[in-house]
Design goal:
Layout (H helix, E strand, L loop, with lengths): L1 E6 L5 H14 L4 E5 L6 H5 L3 H4 L9 H8 L19 H5 L1 E3 L2 E5 L13 H15 L4 E5 L5 H4 L8 E6 L3 H16 L5 E8 L2 H10 L5 E6 L3 H8 L3 H4 L1 H18 L13
Parallel strand pairs: 1-5, 1-6, 2-4, 2-5, 6-7, 7-8
Antiparallel strand pairs: 3-4
Helix pairs in contact: 1-12, 4-6
Length: 270
């Protein structure tokens, strides 16, 4: 099961990724979460302790590794370099594990066919493709904001895309753009997830105005999300309502994937 999480900037993609990553891990699944945002913050949302976060480094910033694998110095454009460098060892070497979730940070170089022609982009594009063909039980891609990555067809092999929206028309407008571009690359398994939903009226608004995507679930608005961030603890632990909502989303994804949980491994709810 390979899932990309995307949406307008600030809607809560990282919060959702952290919640469902931990829900899957608690259900006994093997989870690899990939932070593909230029400003990685998934480690914080997952509650990785400082000593583990210190071991994380975005692949795009590993100049020595990029030069070793591509044969060219990062920052150079043009010239000769390996466009499909070896990357198979990177997920295990540079990911860190906490509470059953492996985390890998990609960095901020553009990915995909029409991005920059440079060693960093070649490295990340090859790594991205490798991740999509690995046999991880659960692969979660926390994408950067907007729709550009879809235009470069970097997620055309994911099983499904979760589009996070707030109950606003602007957020739904971005979701409609994402749907169009996803359909252009033949990705038609898309789900909407409402975040910061305060009441039934806002839930009904999303149901009525969804741009042709089924609503997978809702994350309720809760000021404890900000409190969890200030305290440096995972929202999954700090906000029971969000943990319960994440478990329901994972259950629906499991049914959509046609697989059942191992006996006794259903997601835990409060």
């Amino acid at each position: 099961m390979k899932l990309a999480i995307t949406g307008k900037g600030g809607v809560g993609k990282t919060t959702l990724t952290a919640l469902i990553a931990q829900a899957y891990a608690d259900a006994g699944r093997q989870v690899l979460a990939v932070d593909a945002d230029p400003s990685p913050c998934l480690a914080g949302a997952l509650g990785f302790p400082d000593e583990l976060r210190a071991k994380l480094s975005p692949i795009a910033e590993m100049d020595a590794l990029i030069e070793e694998r591509t044969g060219a110095k990062p920052g150079t454009v043009g010239g000769f370099f390996t466009i499909n460098p070896r990357v198979d060892d990177i997920p295990e070497r540079f990911s860190v594990d906490h509470r059953g979730v492996k985390l890998l940070e990609m960095g901020s170089v553009e990915l995909g066919g029409s991005g920059c022609i440079c060693p960093e982009a070649a490295m990340l594009k090859t790594l991205f493709t490798h991740l999509l063909f690995r046999k991880d039980d659960i692969l979660l891609l926390d994408m950067y904001a907007g729709v550009e990555h879809l235009g470069r067809a970097t997620v055309d092999f994911v099983d499904a895309m979760l589009v996070v929206v707030e109950p606003t028309r602007r957020s739904l407008g971005t979701a409609a753009q994402i749907k169009k571009l996803a359909n252009d690359i033949k990705l038609d398994r898309l789900y909407l997830v409402g975040n910061k939903v305060r009441n039934e009226d806002e839930a009904r608004f999303l149901e009525a105005e969804t741009p042709g995507m089924p609503v997978l679930g809702y994350l309720p608005a809760d000021m404890k999300v900000q409190e969890a961030d200030r305290l440096g603890i995972p929202v999954y632990d700090h906000v029971p309502a969000l943990k319960e909502a994440a478990a329901k989303i994972v259950e629906k994804l499991q049914r959509a994937d046609g697989k059942e949980y191992p006996q006794g491994a259903a997601p835990r709810t409060m």
